[in-house]
Amino acid sequence: MNKKENKSEFLFGKRNYIIMIIGLGIIFLGFFLMAGGGSEDPNVFNEEIYNFQRIRLAPTLILIGFAIEVYAILSNSYE
Question: How far, in Å, CA of 40 to CA of 46, rounded?
Fold first, then answer.
């Protein structure tokens, strides 16, 4: 009888997982930069919520992180 080897293989290679971790780190950084800017008193409006960091930088980092994730999933693993 023919015995088949049950070889446990990961879905992606080591390079793909490293790129995924980098992408997740960039996404986390984007969400971290977007947080805050609220006011202690709900009757007082805080203009700080509309600064460059929360309106431009953080969403851009999140989109770049998602693009890196897509690249990590679609790239070939040469291992």
Answer: 9
Strands (E), the chain: none
Tens-digit pLDDT profile for residues 36-64: 777 788 888 888 888 999 999 999 999 99
The DSSP call for residue 46 is -
Choose among 77, 73, 78: nearest CA to 24. 73
Angle, helix 58-74 to helix 14-34, in steps of 10 degrees? 170
More confident residue, 7 or 31: 31
* CA 6 to chain centroid: 33
Measured between its terminal Cα atoms, the distance across the chain in Å is 31
**13 or 22, higher pLDDT:** 22
**pTM of the predicted structure, to 2 decimals:** 0.79
Q: Residue 17's closest CA among 62, 71, 72, 66?
A: 72
